[in-house]
Amino acid sequence: MMTEKERAGRAAAHAVEDGMILGLGTGSTVHFTLLELKVRMDQGLRLQGVATSQRTEILARELGIPILPFSAVDRIDLTLDGADEVDPNLNGIKGGGGALLYEKLVAEASDKVIWVVDHQKMVDTLGRFPLPLEVVPFNLEKLWKKLENQGYHPRVRMQAGEPFVTDAGNRILDLHLQAISDPEGLHRELKLMSGVVETGLFLHMAEEVIEGVGDTLRHHFRK
Ligand SMILES: O=C(CO)[C@H](O)[C@H](O)COP(=O)(O)O
């Protein structure tokens, strides 16, 4: 049986129309979207993609999906991406894979955004998943201290014993908050801190979420 991630991921590839420029998200769910896009391309679908991470670009190229640099496109027809948490308003937390900055830039340049998730990602309130912040390395320690003093419980994301480095050369601080009562206010507050490049709060961006639930799918649309 397909996992929920695979079911949702593959389903999203069927929202793609011939000739589209697609934003290609990052993560283990969208991985299946790319595999299904390859199946559809073998059946004649034409498309070009803009990758949100090196990891996605490598997979897309392996599959023969033509990749355009972000700088070369004006608009993107549709972006298909994963998410770490999604609330009933289809606001979400992203960045579990560390690609939040490019994911947000690509989403903002897109006419439509669809997220693909398994059922555990749907929550009433955002925040149980640690909120990633992409920050410049220069003041990582000072920013950590400031956020710690404000009670945001930051942790430097690590990989193989070293601070994780994003595709843009930045670092990630994960905020362990448990519940975010005012996502817009928090996003604004964090963005105003010098050294914060982007937050993992993706607000009013996804128009549709495809949720894998057992052996079926649920489609959620933004109201
Ligand atoms: O935001 C992301 C990467 O920065 C991913 O889309 C998110 O972490 C979901 O990943 P997965 O599909 O592997 O659960």
TrEMBL record:
Q: GO MF terms on file?
A: ribose-5-phosphate isomerase activity
State the CDD domains in the record.
RPI_A
Q: Which GO terms describe its biological process?
A: D-ribose metabolic process; pentose-phosphate shunt, non-oxidative branch
Record: active site: 103 (proton acceptor)
What biological function has been recorded for the protein in this entry? Catalyzes the reversible conversion of ribose-5-phosphate to ribulose 5-phosphate.
Q: Which residues form a coiled coil?
A: none
GO cellular component term of the entry, any: cytosol
The answer, when asked if Isomerase is one of the entry's keywords, is: yes
- Source organism: Proteiniclasticum sediminis
Any idea what this protein is called? Ribose-5-phosphate isomerase A
Chain residues that bind substrate: 26-29, 81-84, 94-97, 121
- Tell me how this protein assembles: Homodimer.
Transmembrane domains' residue ranges: none
Asked if the Swiss-Prot or TrEMBL record annotates the protein with the keyword Transcription regulation, the reply is no
Q: Which gene produces this protein? A: rpiA
Which E.C. number(s) belong to this protein? 5.3.1.6
Xref: HAMAP family: Rib_5P_isom_A
Catalytic activity, reaction form: aldehydo-D-ribose 5-phosphate = D-ribulose 5-phosphate
Question: Pathway of this protein?
Answer: Carbohydrate degradation; pentose phosphate pathway; D-ribose 5-phosphate from D-ribulose 5-phosphate (non-oxidative stage): step 1/1
> Could you tell me the keywords of this UniProt record?
Isomerase
Q: What family, per the record?
A: Belongs to the ribose 5-phosphate isomerase family.
